[in-house]
Amino acid sequence: MAEGDTLISVDYEIFGKVQGVFFHKHTQAEGKKLGLVGWVQNADRSTVQGQLQGPIFKEHHMQEWLETRGSPKSHIDKANFNNEKVILKLDYSDFQIVKEWPEFKFSKINSVVWFFLLIEIELLCVNISISQ
């Protein structure tokens, strides 16, 4: 494997005006354009964080993009890159946006589970009041 083809993985966190400006959508698009894999998500500290994996020369191009460009309406104050390491194979097959809070789908199965849970709670309350 040529030196530029060496696979690396790196974690990142981007600071500034990076939430609410489609930063993660543009990050995903740029990563896919470069042929990288990994993930991106909004973080609790009003930052964006994620992980990149791919050939070292493409990774360095993406790091520069994250430090200097980002989405059109973003303003990047600082970019931290940590845990850079050589890897033998990619851990991901795509570049994904990770949602902070998974959507809860209230399906028929969930409805039934909630119904029986409420019955159990009610029975427990009845048993407690009878025993007192």
Keywords summarizing the entry:
132 residues; alpha+beta; Alpha-Beta Plaits; 5-stranded mixed β-sheet; 3 helices; 37% helix; 30% strand; elongated; Acylphosphatase-like_dom_sf
Explain this structure.
This protein is α+β, with helices and mostly antiparallel strands and 132 residues long. The chain has a single domain, classed as Alpha-Beta Plaits. The chain is 37% helix and 30% strand. It contains three helices and five strands. The chain has helices at 23-34, 56-68, 108-131; strands at residues 7-17, 37-42, 48-55, 75-86, 95-97. A five-stranded mixed β-sheet has the order 4-1-3-2-5, with helices on one face. A hairpin with a 5-residue loop joins strand 2 (37-42) and strand 3 (48-55). Helix 1 runs antiparallel to helix 2. The longest helix has 24 residues, at 108-131. Mean pLDDT is 85; it is low at 101-106. It catalyses: an acyl phosphate + H2O = a carboxylate + phosphate + H(+). Residues 9-99 form the Acylphosphatase-like domain.
What's this entry about, in short?
The protein is 37% helix and 30% strand. The chain is α+β, with helices and mostly antiparallel strands. It has a single domain (5-99), classed as Alpha-Beta Plaits, CATH 3.30.70.100.
Overall structural class, as computed from helix and strand content, comes to alpha+beta
Could you give a short account of the major beta sheet? Answer: 5 strands, mixed
Named at the architecture level, the CATH assignment is 2-Layer Sandwich
The level-1 CATH class: Alpha Beta
Alpha-carbon distance between the two ends: 75 Å
Order of strands across the widest beta sheet?
4-1-3-2-5
Q: State Rg.
A: 22 Å
Helix tally equals: 3
Global shape: elongated
Helix share, percent: 25-40%
Secondary-structure element order, as H and E?
EHEEHEEH
Beta-sheet strand percentage?
25-35%
How confident overall, as mean pLDDT?
85
Low-pLDDT runs of 5+ residues are 101-106
What is the CATH topology descriptor? Alpha-Beta Plaits
| Domain tally | 1
Task: Find the count of extended strands (DSSP E, 2+ residues).
Answer: 5
